[in-house]
Write a structure and sequence with these properties.
It is built from two helices and no strands. It has 68 residues and is an all-alpha fold. The longest helix is centred in the middle third of the chain and has 36 residues. It is elongated, with a radius of gyration of 20 Å.
């Protein structure tokens, strides 16, 4: 992925990470960084799934009743 392909919103933490120069990192440091980022992705995905489940329950609770 080219840097130009990244979203234009650069004020958040992910945007700051995307701007960081990686040339000074060793291979071990880069792998450690990848592991941390993958752990964060897993955390965000888990939270997304929890929010989706919560939304599904709320939609079922508040859906309009069908009248015949």
């Amino acid at each position: 992925m080219d840097e130009d392909d990244l979203p234009r919103m650069r004020s958040d933490a992910a945007g700051q990470l995307a701007k960081e120069v990686l040339d000074t990192y060793s291979q071990d440091e880069l792998m450690a960084r990848i592991q941390l980022l993958e752990a964060e992705i897993a955390r965000v995905k888990a939270h997304h799934a929890k929010a989706a489940d919560h939304r599904k329950i709320a939609d079922a609770l508040f859906k309009p009743r069908e009248t015949d």
